[in-house]
Amino acid sequence: MPISPAPSRRATLKSLLASTAMTALPFGAAVQAATRPLPYRWRNVRVGGGGFIPGVVFSPVEKGLAYLRSDMGGAYRWQASEGRWIPLLDDQAQGSWQGVESVAPDPVDANVVYLACGMGRPDPAAILRSENRGTDWTVIPVPFRMGGNEDGRGLGERLAIDPNDTKTLVFASRHDGLQVSRDRGATWSKSASFPLPGLGLNARPAPTHGGLSFVIFDPSSGKPGRGSRTLFVGVADPSEHHLWRSDDGGASWKPIPAPHAYLACKAALDGQGRLYVTYSSGIGPSNVEGGAVWRLDTATNAWTEITPAKPQAQRGGGFMGVAVDRSGAVAVTSLNRWNPHDTLWRSTDHGATWTDLYADARRDVTTTPFLHWGEPEADFGWWMAGLAIDPFDPDFACYTTGATIYATREFTKAAAGRPTTWFPWIEGIEQTAIITLASLPEGPPLLSGFGDISGFVHDDLSVSPTDQFTTPVFGNTNFIDYAGVQPAIVVRSGTPHQRHGGPTLAWSGDHGRTWAPMTAPRIPNAPPPPGQGRRGPDPHDDAAIVVNADGSVFMVMTAQAQITRDRGASWQVSQGLPAWLRPVPDRVDPRRFTALDLQTGKRWISTDAGASFAAAPVSGLPADLSADQVTWREIPWPLKAVPGQAGHLWFVSGQGLFRSTDGGARFTHIDGGIQVDQLDLGAPPPGRHHPALFAIGRKDGVKAIWRSDDEGASWVRVNDPHHEYGRRFRCLAADMRVYGRVYVGTDGRGIVYGEPS
Predict the structure, then answer these.
(1) 396-431 pLDDT per residue, tens
(2) Is 452 known to be catalytic?
């Protein structure tokens, strides 16, 4: 019988209090801050997929029921009645739960599902159990750590339920051997009989490693209520043996030697006792150079190699995804076969012969046009770790990639070599990391900078955008700025895409719809940047770019700030400005730029559109601002100019929020009762002149989204306990035209936006 929502909510709250250190605070204050938000409606800005999905699992007992796990955006359930994926962990405040290492639908009760959650080895881990398909969860913290966002996250499935005794769960751990629960996940203990105990959490050094990779029960080896006798465990660490078998319910184990040294990645057992295992030289999803596919006759433990196409020298790649249907057909995917490409094979004779689906596969990406990546045809896919066939419909199959999930309703056509049509099966999924956002006062309501997929112009928040940032395509878009009084002029900076390379700066004259690349010259003998944490060998490539109020001057923040007045044709160094300072353009006066030196506390101003700077007095700020120094390219700059108000600035410090109305000469500390981490300014409240303020901030131990209508004097929370998103908030932008609307970039759940309900 499904449990009621109240007990599972209480269990969830208990685990969250422990994991977010709220127990050190007065309980009433923490709960009050968490449960009295302003009524807001929250939705996703639609892009569709966008990130790596390591696995999809169909329910074996109910048609049309499936689950998927993501590496940093939680888990989803396919809701056939609505034709969309439903996010299941948006109400969880513990960020580590968003990295899902395994998903296990109950093999008897369609209402029951388990998740194994933990982002990485340093992070807390838990088993989550639901008895109403993921609507509510009982959270069970566990002592063994996981790696939902580490290398090898495509392995599995690691969590398995005994189909003949569903109280018994077994988890193949990365670090701590084989873990067993006999009470539906409520308690766990390490199997003393399993011969590989794991490296343990204290092992040094502590590289990412696969550990144990999968668990599979043989249903035919037991009877309902009495448990299964036979189960298999894969090993994805270098070891003498990579497959182990027990025929006494786990009391003892024997290795099944294989004639190769590859690591066991995934496995599938068909109804006739054939175990198909994919092997690779590495755990993926990248850096795999070789691999194979083998079939085990479980009655005799005899191996047969059935590798569809052996990797060749200098071409690389291994194998990962594997699935069987109820007729006995089997399919596998390659992994990291960059030369010439990854692919998918299907066999109807147990692997004796294979059909390669690549040549005759067609992709219809109308619903997510960004998958074209500026090319005439969408890519077949890469990082193809997940593969699943609907147990109730052998024509429906899906495979996962680094950017989407492709599905087809014509899978059996491949047996005859006929074309198959694939479509993105991502309705409802937003699984991306957002780095920067900008809301314009005219044109499209939102511009976005994504990790891995460049960025977009969002004309319609409910439709996957057609205008992806190209020419150049960035891997990551790290910064977007627009001209305060000429907002059609937009600039952006980012990290080159690994396939496209090229410039790291671009500008647009049509609100970001089309772009022209720019490249600023390198500063010779540049001093190192202040602080730590800059990734990459050359901080020049991390340089942000801004534009002055009328769009006539672009400034790039290289070691010495440089400006261009001719759209990048020529550049000149801003004179008088110390190295590594980052000026902010006034939103109204095109001549004015202001910079704060966070190492010395000094202020520098330009009144000639960035050509030169001079030191100027400043008061009202803390004496030591060095802790506010930004040392990573994806962190928003703490000094912000106010749209529509010349000389108005806000400064976000770890020591408080500060405001200036005279160009930064004098700052006033604004204490509204929250610690502001990031700030943005949107449409003013009715009857007021100053913009509404929105913040990512903290109060009473709760990290949340806040709004102030009185210039920071007081704040109200606008996200609620149903919209926590793991509290993995990375950036935000307040809408410049719609009062009360705020866009929030998450680390794994895409862009969400809220507005008063």
Answers:
(1) 999 999 999 999 999 999 877 789 999 999 999 999
(2) yes
